[in-house]
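INFO batch 0412 | record 1 of 1 | parsing
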Amino acid sequence: MTGDRAVLRSTTTMSAWRNWAGTVTARPARTVSPSSVEELVGEVRAAAADGLRVKAVGSGHSFTSVAATDGVFVRPDLLTGIREIDRAAGTVTVAAGTPLKRLNTALAREGLSLTNMGDIMEQTVAGATSTGTHGTGRDSASIAAQIRALELVTADGTVLRCSAEENPEIFAVARIGLGALGVITAVTFAVEPVFLLTAREEPMSFDRVTAEFDQHVAENEHFEFYWFPHTGNCNTKRNNRSAGPAAPPGRVAGWVEDELLSNGAFRVACALGRAVPATIPALARVSSRALSARTYTDIPYKVFTSPRRVRFVEMEYALPREAAVGALREVKAMLERSPLKVSFPVEIRTAPADDIALSTASGRETAYIAVHLYRGTPHRSYFTAVERIMTAHGGRPHWGKIHTRDAGYLAAAYPRFAEFTAVRDRLDPDRLFGNDYLRRVLGD
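INFO prediction complete | emitting tokens
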């Protein structure tokens, strides 16, 4: 009966869905927004009875078609909010459709925080964790590595809970599950009392930052840098815990840096570069010198994250950390001898090894190299050239960003790949949660 009621609430649609970057379009047979786990169970069972596949879709911030389907789109808009805060255990359980922005602000009101996070917070909890969203960190990086328990609806309509103690073999793979194992309904994160971070942003030359890369990673809790192609200029960011007091950027100074320069002026430069590519090297030299050194102290999500209003396409590869500097230098040399013109900076971050089967940092100390282009700019030549360099170093592509790897490559790149696919075969033998992307990267 639950399933029948849920189907009546479903919205049949032929309108196209597009992701944030405009790289993926889907036309689902119907879109549903269940308001409870019980309703979701009904929707999953109804889809199976109708011979339709099921995909949950969040904010659309993945650049790949990981969430695309012509079957049933599950929108988790009504599955939001904090279910429970356990201060003794240091955990928070949150409904899977909750945007990270709402989670971060709600935790801050409770005097709590995640340990680390990515650089934007528009994604849903389930979408961000399922694709391996990460920040940068010497000791912590991936959001999924902070998960302590999961709840998901599997293909037969079972509400399955897993943790290190309950269904541990599923927990070992499901924290980064690509939507292939079921529809996540709740996530339990480890949290800690809210703390202060001091951010130090500083321009630095490419030669200096690459020569000192290991030193910066060792000396800072969170280190990242951006290199501006066609220049020898970088911008570095070091985040470290602080005893305070809080000293956030001034309202005017913060607006100038984060909105006028990083978004407004940068959008104009990107649009001009797309229209007249020959101007890009000169624009890059100006852009790389526009951001000045600054230091500020604030609660974590206000330091880790920043607004990203300029739309782009992105490819990111995870490399063994010791290979990162050499690979980045190869990218720089490739651009210097090619006719390619690149207006977006290249981003470099790090992560410690973790124990999640399909984490890009699974089993190895990791550095990430991310390349971007302004949305609407042809990206294939640039991304193909960079991908060739990354794969030569044993790179693992970010699951939510553009790449061309398939299951044959990925099975060799991930020692625990077969462990994941075995759990998938058990939980979803008929591929109710499958799609073309998962067929490519996981096989069938």
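INFO post-check: The longest strand covers residues 196-205.
INFO record closed
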